């Protein structure tokens, strides 16, 4: 409950226009701990640096609350440029995309614009043997995202497109089981949006326990699973689980956020586990930065110390 109250307080303050203006003016140097940069080359350089330690990248062009169809198409075009740039740099493209950013829910001649742009993006990634993860957003978008994910897996294959489930949502265990026929690649996260108690667990202990259930069930079903957490207790539990059940290291990978626990990322890679860092970049960094601060007081203290030094 304390974690929920902390997250709510931080995100409520962050939504105030005057706070956002102050942050954009003053906090970019601090945000760079969590955001690779504002352009494609910064993102590519971040991947190349991580690869020196055996860590791969999951690139994400930041962009939320994009309204017009023209903006959505432009955003999709920029993701296509990112995929081309990754391939040109010798990196197998692996990107995350929020379908709302490319037009989910907007009609385009009888076709959902988000689905249309997702096809463009996944098709381009598939050309290079790459992968696209359809990010999950706040709970009202869960149904349409899972519906479109099912369509896209049917068209491009589970080896080229995956999605995300959030353990703080009550519904996620049922959602996971309902996707088993696809043999889907799913990134398991705890969830970073501010959700009401009617749809999400308010207590961290319940969120953590549901996280373990999701990961274990997905692995036991023989599916590819991306264990996206910095929680060392959960990571150790997953290590024990896969060992006890004879699950290959090729069936899963640990995923973490850029700028957080690089030491843990390196040590896991050194142990022979597949490790991937989620690398956001772009000018629209404020909402992402706010959610990182809201995750833990440690991140808030990092920002506070940085502001005092400034």
Automatic annotation (TrEMBL):
Cofactor annotation: FAD
Name of the top EC class for this enzyme: oxidoreductase
Biochemical pathway: Amino-acid degradation; L-proline degradation into L-glutamate; L-glutamate from L-proline: step 1/2
Catalytic activity, as annotated: L-proline + a quinone = (S)-1-pyrroline-5-carboxylate + a quinol + H(+)
Keywords for this protein: FAD, Flavoprotein, Nucleotide-binding, Oxidoreductase, Proline metabolism
Listed SUPFAM superfamilies: FAD-linked oxidoreductase
InterPro entries: FAD-linked_oxidoreductase-like, PRODH_bac_arc, Proline_DH_dom, Proline_oxidase
Enzyme Commission code: 1.5.5.2
Proline dehydrogenase domain: residues covered: 44-304
Cited Pfam families: Pro_dh
Signal peptide: none
Name the record gives this protein: proline dehydrogenase
Organism: Deinococcus taklimakanensis
């Amino acid at each position: 409950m304390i974690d929920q109250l902390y997250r709510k307080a931080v995100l409520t303050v962050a939504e105030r226009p005057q706070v956002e203006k102050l942050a954009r003016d003053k906090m970019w140097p601090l945000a760079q701990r969590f955001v690779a940069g504002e352009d494609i080359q910064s993102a590519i350089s971040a991947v190349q640096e991580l690869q020196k330690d055996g860590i791969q990248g999951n690139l994400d062009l930041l962009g939320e609350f994009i309204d017009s169809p023209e903006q959505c198409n432009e955003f999709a075009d920029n993701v296509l440029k990112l995929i081309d740039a990754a391939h040109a740099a010798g990196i197998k493209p692996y990107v995350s995309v929020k379908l709302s950013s490319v037009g989910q829910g907007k009609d385009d001649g009888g076709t959902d614009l988000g689905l249309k742009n997702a096809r463009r993006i996944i098709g381009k990634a598939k050309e290079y043997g790459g992968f696209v993860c359809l990010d999950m957003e706040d709970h009202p978008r869960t149904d349409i995202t899972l519906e479109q994910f099912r369509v896209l897996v049917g068209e491009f294959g589970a080896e080229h497109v995956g999605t995300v489930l959030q353990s703080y949502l009550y519904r996620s265990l049922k959602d996971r089981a309902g996707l088993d026929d696809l043999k889907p690649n799913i990134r398991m996260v705890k969830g970073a949006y501010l959700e009401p108690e009617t749809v999400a667990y308010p207590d961290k202990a319940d969120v953590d326990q549901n996280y373990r259930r999701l990961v274990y069930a997905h692995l036991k079903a023989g599916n590819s699973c991306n264990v996206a957490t910095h929680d060392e207790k959960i990571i150790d539990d997953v290590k024990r689980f896969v060992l006890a059940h004879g699950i290959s290291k090729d069936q899963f990978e640990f995923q973490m956020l850029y700028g957080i626990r690089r030491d843990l990322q390196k040590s896991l890679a050194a142990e022979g586990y597949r490790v991937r860092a989620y690398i956001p970049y772009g000018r629209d960094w404020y909402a992402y930065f706010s959610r990182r601060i809201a995750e833990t007081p440690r991140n808030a203290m990092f920002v506070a110390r940085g502001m005092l030094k400034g």
